[in-house]
Amino acid sequence: MSDAESxxxxxxxxxxxxxxxxxxxxxxxxxxxxxxxxxxxxxxxxSPPAPDSIVDRVISTLPSIVDFHADIGLTDADTIVRAQSAxxxxxIFEGWADGLxxxxxxxxxxxxxxxxxxxxxxxxxxxxxxxxxxxxxxSPAAELGRSGRFAAQGTAIVGAMPTIxxxxxxxxxxxxxxxxxxxLHLGVAxxxxxxxxxxxxxxxxxxxxxxxTDGTRVTAELYVDCTGPxxxxxxxxxxxxxxxxxxxxxxxxxxxxAQPRQDAQLLDGVxxxxxxxxxxxxxxAASCHGVAYSSAHAxxxxxxxALPSAAAEISIRQxxxxxxxLRNCVAVGDAAVTVEPLEWANxxxxxxxxxxxxxxxxxxxxAAVELGEYNRQSNAEADRIRDFVCAxxxxxxxxxxxxxxxxxxxxxxxxxHTLLLFAERGRLPYYEExxxxxxxxxxxxxxxxxxxxxxxxxxDIVPIEDVTRSIANYREAIKSFVDxxxxxxxxxxxxxxxx
Amino acid sequence: xxxxxxxKVVIVGGGTAGWMTAAALAKxxxxxxxxxxxxxxxxxxxxxxxxTLPHIRGFNEKLGxxxxxxxxxxxxxxxxxxxxxxxxxxxxxxxxxxxxxxxGQGDIDFHHYWNRARQEGQKVxxxxxxxxAVTMAYMNRFARPSADPAAIESTFNYAYQFDAxxxxxxxxxxxEQLGTVRTEGRIVDVELDGExxxxxxxxxxxxxxxxxxxxxxxxxFVSLIIGKTLGExxxxxxxxxxxxxxxxxxxxxxxxxxxxxxxxAMPAGWRxxxxxxxxxxxxxxxxxxxxxxxxxxxxLIEAVGGEPIAEPRVLKFKAGRRKRSWVGNCIAxxxxxxxxxxxxxTSIYLIQAAITGLVELFPExxxxxxxxxxxxxxxxxxYDWIRDFLILHYHATExxxxxxxxxxxxxxxxxSLKEKMELFRRRGRVVKHRExxxxxxxxxxxxxxxxxxxESHDQRVDMLPQSVLLQNMESLRAAIRSKAERMPDHRxxxxxxxxxxxxx
Lengths: 499, 504
Known about the structure:
The complex is a heterodimer of chains A (499) and B (504). The N and C termini of chain A lie far apart (59 Å). In chain A, strands 6-5-4-15-16-17-14-18 form an 8-stranded mixed sheet. Chain A has a 6-stranded mixed sheet with strand order 8-2-1-12-21-20. Helices cover 34% and strands 18% of the residues of chain A. The model of chain A is unreliable at 1-7 (pLDDT under 50). Chain A is built from 15 helices and 22 strands. Chain A is α+β, with helices and mostly antiparallel strands. Chain A folds into 2 domains: 14-88 and 170-244 and 316-384, FAD/NAD(P)-binding domain, CATH 3.50.50.60; 90-168 and 390-491, FAD/NAD(P)-binding domain (3-Layer(bba) Sandwich), CATH 3.50.50.60. Chain B is α+β, with helices and mostly antiparallel strands and 504 residues long. Chain B folds into 3 domains: 7-77 and 162-237 and 321-377, FAD/NAD(P)-binding domain; 99-156 and 414-490, no CATH class; 245-316, no CATH class. Helix content of chain B is 35%, strand content 19%. In chain B, the strands form 5 sheets. A 7-stranded mixed sheet of chain B has the order 6-5-15-16-17-14-18. Chain B has a 6-stranded mixed sheet with strand order 8-2-1-12-21-20. At the A-B interface, helix 10 and helix 12 of A face helix 10 and helix 12 of B.
């Protein structure tokens, strides 16, 4: 009201965006911006991906990648067949809690509500009176993953449709090429070159231009920093970086590759080690292995002992910028949030930040109030991913010094709140911008033997005999459902032949 | 027989809050609690005719209540939203609907399209023309929302307007059938445990002493336990929400039976108009700093159409909430925990939120801090969010015609609200809030309805050529209109579905 009268000119729309970085994050951002806001001129400054880029090395992704592709107009034929990706149904976690069996975190329902009450509450009640199977045995998606069978959605189990989400295992080089080719096809411009300087406007601290080593100057109204953990552009504007190392003890990642497996697997594996954890995942082109460890607890040689071959090692500093978007520069992916790949949220963060950028695109003023809301949502999202990853450490049970220290970590406030309520009565509080569903939290917490002290009184409304019967029925139904589905690597090899 | 391990819950006060709590506990937690309600008929209840929010349907459903039966017995009508009149300027009006604007499809909120057309200098119809709920409301139509998310008739929701003095007895019958014990009598003393400070018992005028494990304070404004006895401090919001009185006076319904509540700005506050089957509830909420009781009463009588059927009654209150709503073994529900004027029909919603919290966090005999703190966190968040939304109604105005409106227009508002308004004004963005009350469309309705108009819009809507945009908007408007035209008249619908019992 009063602002409008004071003759302030309307903040004009942004027309020119420069994306710096030519890894997956950079090309994905460029393609999505161009496709979804077609009035933008998007230019990519394609310096090669940073050697410490996590997003460009981790091949496992969450199911949200499929939605991202659909939103920008890419099909399964592009992203799976041509880019040589495989499907993944989840992760099998081994050795995280001494004495307990492995558990599967898949992307689907764990059980179904019993007379309107949450399944996990009834599972806890049943377990107190009888022997029941581990929690993940009640997830159709997890069971499909374990048995290596594939099901498209659409068959009901005991009257309820199971949810089954698939992420992708990428063949990274092919995927980068696909994103680049697609962005260029959409009309994104590419300029090769290295950044030499990022001069700021003295008047307001905005980026004035990018100067490349060959003397070229690039100007835009918004600069998207996809340069990886070093945040080469965003860091020039200063501001606080919030360090998470007190909560996430690993500071080194080692990546290795080997021959692809003949029998395609739907689950990747994540096992704990004496000083961190290691993974094994496989795409049609290679099997990929890696180690995350704490350099305070192990040497490089100790860390790579279990790997088939040793390749790149990178140091990581986990944390995020307090303001990923500051003035006319927004950091995306590793440049905004650096987090270890446990639970594979790295590329998901890229996609989610791009979606948010598209739907909250500001004007050329880059008004603090608009950026503030973007940052609030982005930070809430990053912090909950941090919480989820941290939960694996603080609820793990192993004896080595690394794990003893991990068990003494004082969790971030929001995670402490989550664990407190869960420990009390199996309640999971609601948080805005949560990436992982309630079922995901349950899969991990119950999978690691983090059990509530008591159950929710509301669950008592169902007689215990009905509960044990329902649970047994559902388990039986999952079993016959899973057994009737085709074997994944057979389906998949016939799919691959079309490529 | 083994000893009853259930907690004994004593509910103090039998108004809407008391009986809602009793019915919910008795129905949902029969194995965990026994419910004993103490009320005094001499005290009476505040219930002045209530307009509700759609959430109440979920509450009734959980209790297994048959909708038609409930509506008939409480003389209820359907409610699609609230019409605000004279808020931004005298002569203005808009409806805050239970529902969204536009077709409900696509990524981009409809108001960005509407704003673009407006910003480009096009003459656009009011945004309410693009809301199913608003269109139905103004045409006095009602039908149930469609379950098909692709249908435009799925873009609205509904609540009820009913006689609150009949809702409490309706719930009482249910609660008593489920075993709730009721004692009639006035409480004269609250007995505390010297060591823990917990409430041990209440003592009645008759001398009877009623012990309990858990006490639910539904005593209304008196706030008998949490306020008077336990002394929990009150967070006072009256510098932003200055209204502190209401005068209520029902009258016979003579005008159309509107499927919406009326909220009309007045010189020192606002007045409500709630059409029920048998009468219309009226009241004037005002600030005693800006008018007198006599003047308010006279203004109400003059403004109300229809013959009064009761003497005007004055209520006094203060906006704000208890610092904590759960202290020791006492949980305050309803007015005992706080007060927000009924501008957006939130009174019963807040009762319901407290009951949901209590049921979900129902304690053991040894009450854990985790449960108590979580309850207080949830309730505080509800109050704080609603607070900002209410303040917006007063602050976003051009009115300076009375000292009251001049004050609220120029007062300083909480920073949290200032940011929300600034964000909307720039580009029509609404602060994201996914859980709880008043989602995006509600804020959009009030912002635009009260003249907080964005200077710009989401740039994705520019991809459409202007002529196509205008054409699409016009066909959407026509589609909504033609759907509404085929729906039954509100009164006819009620007469078929849930007519109140004929006077015996």
